[in-house]
Write a structure and sequence with these properties.
By secondary structure, the chain is α/β, with parallel strands linked by helices. It is built from 7 helices and 5 strands. It has a 5-stranded mixed sheet with strand order 2-1-3-5-4. Strand 4 and strand 5 form a beta hairpin.
Length: 156
């Protein structure tokens, strides 16, 4: 399961997450590890685009997480949660964590409603590579960790 922050303009219009340039790069990285969109679930923390593409307000994040995101996790029971970007990461990890320190490193989180535990893998947002070309290699390398984590979970 891949989790972004909020829909952009194209995503909001089409009702599908990650369909713009970031989505194309996401698709490329998925293909690099032998996965396709049909193999994964992609969503956002906030389910509708904030006005003027501003960052979601804390109350919007709280409401969407409680009303939708934790429930999606409960129903889908994903093997791995991959957060895309720091805003999505902060929904699950403390604000004291820096994405530059934890990207690509698996950790465990618990659903406070039902107690299920998930493996969380925080990654940079694909848009980071669009704005900063040097991030492209970092993201591709971090994506390789997805396969490693899945392999380890399958062997347990």
């Amino acid at each position: 399961m891949f989790i972004g922050e909020a829909p952009g303009a194209s995503e909001d219009k089409q009702g599908v997450p990650f369909v713009g340039a970031s989505g194309k790069f996401l698709d490329e990285m998925l293909a690099d590890i032998g996965l396709f969109r049909a193999d994964v679930f992609i969503t956002n923390v906030v389910k509708c685009r904030p006005p003027e593409n501003r960052d979601p307000m804390p109350e919007e994040v709280r409401i969407c997480t409680e009303a939708y995101l934790w429930r999606q996790l409960e129903v889908l029971k994903p093997k791995v949660l991959v957060t895309l970007g720091r805003h999505a990461m902060y929904r699950f990890l403390p604000l004291t964590k820096k994405i530059s320190d934890v990207h690509g490193l698996p950790t465990h989180i618990t659903n406070p409603y039902i107690g299920d535990t998930y493996t969380l893998l925080p990654l940079y947002h694909p848009a980071a590579a669009l704005y900063n070309g040097s991030m492209r290699a970092t993201l591709k390398e971090d994506f390789q960790n997805i396969q490693k984590v899945l392999t380890e979970l399958d062997s347990v």
